[in-house]
Amino acid sequence: MKIYTRTGDKGMTGVIGGRVRKDSIRVEAYGTVDELNSFVGQAIVLMDRSKYQDMIADLTEIQHELFDAGGDLAYVKAPEGSQITYKINADMVTRLEQWIDRYDAECPPIKRFVLPGGSPVSAALHVCRTVARRAERRVVTLAEEEPINQEVRRYLNRLSDFFFAVARTANVREGMGDVEYKRGGEVFG
């Protein structure tokens, strides 16, 4: 099988149920989810398996779910004679909340806004957080124009919170504190 198909040379791409312009909001939404998945992979390769075995397992599961989210977002309509079967569901959002709580328990209480940084792993996870926020914004825009699996939007919202929690946890595991924003007062606690 050849990697190139030439079917997109005129600016159109295939989605589930048809073809759309490559710059459509649908393609922008699932493309940003794909970009996020790549950044998650980059964060994983920075991790020492002895310190991050649990986090690597969770992030790998998230990579599979991001692929599923992209598939859910690629539906324009169900193939003829079938129904759309989405993969992202409310249980995944609940599980993310449980993971957030577990990782947050490793961290000291937060008092100030946190700047991205500290350890290389933390910085990479903060990039994941910001790309997750962008993906969520693209999905919100798509949802205003076309039907989507609403659980994808909820999942991405919670996922950015997850990345914040694991970024802080990474600094703890590396023996570093958060990089706090110093130009404001304490806002939490």
Explain this structure.
- Homotrimer.
- This is Corrinoid adenosyltransferase.
- One of its GO terms (biological process) is cobalamin biosynthetic process.
- It comes from Effusibacillus dendaii.
- With 189 residues, the protein is mainly alpha-helical.
- It has a single domain (19-78, 87-180), classed as Up-down Bundle (Hypothetical Protein Ta1238, Chain: A), CATH 1.20.1200.10.
- Helix content is 59%, strand content 6%.
- Strands 1-2 form a two-stranded antiparallel sheet. A two-stranded antiparallel sheet has the order 3-4.
- β1 (12-15) and β2 (18-21) form a beta hairpin.
- α4 (120-145) packs antiparallel against α5.
- The longest helix has 26 residues, at 120-145.
- It is elongated.
- The mean pLDDT is 92.
What topology does this entry show?
Elements: E1 12-15, E2 18-21, H1 25-45, H2 49-73, H3 90-104, E3 114-115, H4 120-145, H5 150-173, E4 179-180
Antiparallel strand pairs: 1-2, 3-4
Helix pairs in contact: 1-2, 1-4, 2-5, 3-5, 4-5
Index terms:
single chain, two-stranded antiparallel ribbon, elongated, 5 helices, CblAdoTrfase-like_sf, transferase, EC 2.5.1.17, CblAdoTrfase-like, mainly alpha, 4 strands, 189 residues, Hypothetical Protein Ta1238, Chain: A, 59% helix, 6% strand, ATP-binding
